[in-house]
Amino acid sequence: SGIWKNAYLGIRQVAIFLNNIDKNKEFTEEEIIDFKGQAHFLRAYYYWLMLRAFGPIPIIPDEGVDYTKEYDEIAYPRSTYDECADYIAEELVKAATMLDDERDVQNIVRPTRGAALALRSRVLLYAASPLYNGQAPSEVIDALVDKSGRKLLSDTYDNRKWARAAAAAK
What we know:
The chain has helices at 2-20, 29-54, 71-74, 81-98, 113-128, 138-143, 159-169. It is mainly α. The N and C termini lie far apart (35 Å).
């Protein structure tokens, strides 16, 4: 799928960027912090697009993956839905601590602190919803397992997810 390929390509580019931006001597420290915030936002957004489209997905290491290695060395198992949602929410908190509150008209398409916090709120709201909070039909929960048999959707309801979503929305 286009989403899968393009999102993981974007995630790889974010990893390369974050691993190398501190070597740059042309940008100010403030610009580098803002660029890092944008990169964390993008990584979270790419994962969010895939999570919505495909359900639980593999979360690859933040430092990136050496694609020249053998498949068995770089094949990552699917993470649980909760692991994906938590990872995305953490990336958005990182982004929010680095992003500006506002953008001028030339940079209006770049994410702001508010955009990062709003997306985090939505991610946590979905994670608290019945489908991902232990109330999906048992045949769905039983069908979504990894190769080792680990369930990728929670089969127990957790009211704390709603509290977390509500706090993020506030």
